[in-house]
Write a structure and sequence with these properties.
The complex is a heterodimer of chains A (277) and B (207).
Chain A: H1 4-9, H2 13-29, H3 40-50, E1 59-64, H4 70-86, E2 91-95, H5 101-114, E3 123-128, H6 132-141, H7 143-146, E4 173-178, H8 182-193, E5 198-202, H9 207-215, E6 222-224, H10 225-235, H11 241-276
Chain B: H1 4-20, H2 26-64, H3 69-89, H4 96-114, H5 116-127, H6 133-148, H7 151-156, H8 160-169, H9 171-195
Helix pairs in contact in B: 2-3, 6-8, 8-9
Classes of the chains: A alpha/beta (277), B mainly alpha (207).
Chain lengths: 277, 207
């Protein structure tokens, strides 16, 4: 007969999948509603938007993500657009990932409709342009030259909002939301070369990579993963998908921690029994 | 000659772009802006070139019936299908292209990313062991981060958020900064080697 510890250690992984599945589904059906604490990088992100004035230049929002990271990053974009439109801050939206244009358009259109905003006056969608670093540098020199047409084929120069926006110098804040190193490119090119103020939203797994930039003020704020999105939803008083998702994340994280602890207990018991033999 | 031309172009543009950064003269700015336009054009062609290479690679796999050629067929059909549909129906909201994107690509990619949680839970249970001091430290930090970054952790102990921020701001950042400085120096030395023609692998060989 197999040692029960050995049996426990080699549990069919489908049992673990089932446990994780339940940990995801149950909090969705019966939310815990636990309060989300606000971290400093998220508060700084919020404050950087609060500091913008509607009469000054617009915010540039670069939604640099594709469908793979939508669950984590879309809530950030949604909350950010709500915050901006609520404060009458105009927004220029763009993307630097080929999988992003459709997503960025959907989110922008959806939130602008909530606020009855007018295209070309309250927001503009430039779409996608290939060449990451080249696009950033080129926008620093001439936005109209970099994006002669918007996503819908309208000459950018004909859009009322874009009349006064010629280069990155006319944009007080750039926000990039991404699960890639594009955030670092914005810091290196728009930040270092054109001295732009940059805030970012990143997937949770990438957050530690950007902390050094927070300390040096190369990033003025940072939203990290679904937690960051939930914090921002809390700050703009509009709980949405990310807030609900935090209950799921709470339970799944605890389940994984419990599994790791059980796994280690089993490992040590097994090691001790082996050494006795 | 075939090697000398690209090496010379790389040298001239490498030196120019380095010096240009420090020269705010109008002529320098005009040339810089023109180079940026070319930069984007070259990137656009590289995207087209990449797609063609992808098509060629998968066509060969299908023709030779190599292992997994069925996947190549799906890739090629999807790629060509989306291009044709995109040109035919447009890419606006409500078009067939956008419907395929929203209802096929988005859920597929989001699912791929989401199932990581299942594999991670299983892998952590089986492999995350405190075998050595280093592994124990990693395990401890991971547990604190996992509990401290969710509301349930804060609910259990209000000190968790501060502890996670400390991990991110002190030990993690110290390690990250060391790596970044190393990478930065590596980038500078590689760039210099490319500009000076010492590193030539990008033109297909070390000679």
């Amino acid at each position: 007969m197999k040692n029960p510890i050995f049996k426990f250690l080699t549990t069919d992984r489908r049992a673990i999948f089932l446990l994780v599945g339940l940990a995801v589904v149950i909090p969705l059906l019966a939310p815990l509603g636990l309060p989300v604490d606000i971290t400093k990088p998220a508060r700084d992100f919020y404050e950087s938007i609060e500091a913008l004035e509607p009469t000054r230049g617009p915010l540039l929002l670069s939604m640099d993500y594709d469908p793979g990271t939508v669950p984590e990053l879309n809530p950030m974009s949604i909350a950010l657009l709500r915050h901006c439109f609520d404060k009458n801050i105009r927004v220029v939206v763009m993307t630097l990932l080929p999988g992003g244009p459709g997503l960025a358009e959907q989110v922008t259109t959806q939130i602008s409709q909530e606020f009855n905003n007018t295209y070309g006056e309250d927001y503009v969608y430039l779409g996608y342009k290939v060449g990451t670093a080249a696009v950033m540098l080129s926008m620093g020199e001439d936005i109209h030259g970099t994006f002669p047409l918007d996503y819908y084929g309208t000459p950018v120069g004909e859009l009322p909002m874009m009349q006064e926006i010629k280069t990155l110098a006319d944009i007080p804040l750039i926000v990039t939301i991404s699960g890639t190193a594009i955030i670092e490119s914005w810091i290196a090119y728009a930040g270092a070369r054109y001295h732009k103020t940059i805030a970012a939203g990143a997937t949770a797994v990438m957050v530690p990579q950007f902390y050094p930039y927070l300390q040096t003020d190369q990033l003025v704020g940072l939203l990290g993963g679904l937690k960051g999105a939930a914090e921002y939803e809390e700050l703009v008083h509009h709980p949405d998908f990310a807030t609900v998702g935090m209950d799921v994340q709470s339970i799944v994280h605890f389940l994984i921690v419990l599994l790791v602890i059980f796994g280690n207990i089993g490992y040590f018991i097994q090691r001790r029994s082996k050494s006795k033999v | 000659m075939r090697r000398r031309v690209p090496l010379t172009i790389t040298f001239i543009f490498g030196i120019f772009m380095t010096l240009q950064f420090f020269v705010p003269h109008r002529v320098s700015q005009v040339i810089y802006q023109e180079i940026l336009k070319w930069f984007i054009i070259i990137f656009t062609f590289s995207l087209i070139f990449g797609s063609l290479v992808l098509m060629r690679l998968h066509s060969i796999r299908i023709r030779r019936r190599t292992s997994g050629w069925g996947y190549s067929l799906v890739t090629l059909t999807s790629l060509i299908g989306m291009i044709v549909i995109g040109f035919k129906t447009g890419i606006k909201e409500g078009s067939l292209f956008m419907n395929l994107f929203n209802h096929v690509q988005v859920p597929l990619e989001a699912t791929m990313f989401s199932i990581l949680a299942f594999f991670m839970a299983s892998a952590a249970y089986r492999a995350f062991r405190a075998r050595t001091v280093d592994a124990t430290l990693l395990l401890g930090a991971a547990i604190v981060m996992m509990i401290g970054r969710v509301p349930l952790g804060t609910f259990l102990w209000s000190g968790f958020p501060d502890l996670t921020e400390w991990i991110l701001e002190v030990p993690s950042m110290a390690a990250k900064r060391g790596i970044m400085i190393g990478v930065g120096l590596g980038v500078i030395s590689t760039a210099l080697k490319i500009i000076l023609g010492i590193e030539r692998s990008y033109i297909g060989g070390g000679e």
